[in-house]
Write a structure and sequence with these properties.
mainly beta, globular
């Protein structure tokens, strides 16, 4: 299978919302190829509203496994964000690939993600790292009720103190 979707322009807003609340998707493209057991996906898109500009680029691979499970590896992701009311661009980029696994039985749903690291840069000098340990979410049906549990840990390191200034009320 090979599929490609291109969306040169798509505007959306809630009914009755002002124009400043309208989001505009531009130059979006999603490409998928492979079989259900081994798919490759690439995507890129721009989105903007009155004051915010976003750009996303991502590559992933994955597919359906035994017993109805699904697995994927997010190979790369880069998100840039700009607020036109403030100078500069913020960037979040996946440092290494991240694996994701979805499993489902009659009573339990499980989503697992591998450890990872996201690198952040901003409009002022410096870079920060957001690292997380393996993550796991489970939802189990017990006696007619659903119980959910989320487990992970993470840390932010090297956060430049100069990054706080653009968010101060005097800016």
């Amino acid at each position: 299978m090979t599929a490609s979707v291109q969306v040169p322009r798509l505007d959306w807003a809630e009914a009755g919302a002002p124009d400043s609340a309208t989001w505009r998707l531009r130059d979006a493209q999603v490409d998928v190829s492979g079989t259900p057991a081994a798919m490759v996906l690439t995507t890129q898109a721009k989105a903007e509203n009155n004051t915010q500009r976003l750009r996303l680029e991502a590559k992933a691979q994955g597919g359906r496994g035994a017993g109805g499970s699904w697995s994927a590896q997010i190979d790369s992701t880069r998100l840039t964000v700009q607020d036109t009311r403030r100078p500069g661009v913020w960037t979040a980029q996946l440092a290494d690939p991240v694996a994701v696994l979805w499993k489902q039985t009659a009573a339990t749903q499980t989503l697992e993600g591998s450890a990872g690291n996201l690198l952040l840069t901003g409009p002022v000098p410096g870079a920060a790292s957001v690292a997380w340990q393996a993550a796991r979410w489970t939802q189990t049906a017990v006696g007619g009720q659903l119980r959910s549990q989320w487990n992970t840990r993470g840390r932010i390191t090297d956060l430049p103190m100069a990054w706080l200034e653009p968010f101060s009320p005097t800016q």
